[in-house]
Specification:
With 121 residues, the chain is α+β, with helices and mostly antiparallel strands. Helices cover 32% and strands 23% of the residues.
Length: 121
């Protein structure tokens, strides 16, 4: 699947923890792109469960470090991952994209100070 199609398909999907949230959006893309399974078998059902699972893994950054290769954000390619203000995003062109409670979130890619790739990792 092409990244643009993946993002477009999510435009009409409402935000819901455990169904369409920032982690499922970003890591779901990495799973599609690599064919690897990164997400746990048991998915969280609400914000508390999501936060408890993230805490159990030492935080979102530590969880991403476990599965992906950290890279310099300036070298991130389309599809690579970042976390900005506690929200996981996907690099896409000049932006980073995620899902939020009120629709798609778009920020300038320069907001990313940390990044990961799933390529060769």
């Amino acid at each position: 699947m092409i990244l643009a199609h993946y993002i477009t398909d999510k435009l009409s999907v409402p935000f819901e923890y455990g169904v369409n949230d920032c982690v499922l959006f970003t890591v779901g893309w990495a799973e599609l792109a690599t064919g690897k399974k990164y997400l746990p078998e048991k998915i969280w059902k609400n914000e508390k469960e999501a936060l408890d699972l993230i805490k159990k893994h030492g935080g979102l950054i530590a969880a991403f470090d476990q599965h992906f290769k950290r890279i310099e954000p300036n070298y991130a390619q389309d599809g690579d991952l970042t976390i900005v203000d506690g929200i996981a995003h996907i690099f896409s062109g000049a932006a980073i994209v995620s899902v939020g409670k009120h629709g798609l979130l778009n920020k300038n890619r320069l907001a990313a100070t940390i990044a990961w790739t799933y390529h060769n990792g």
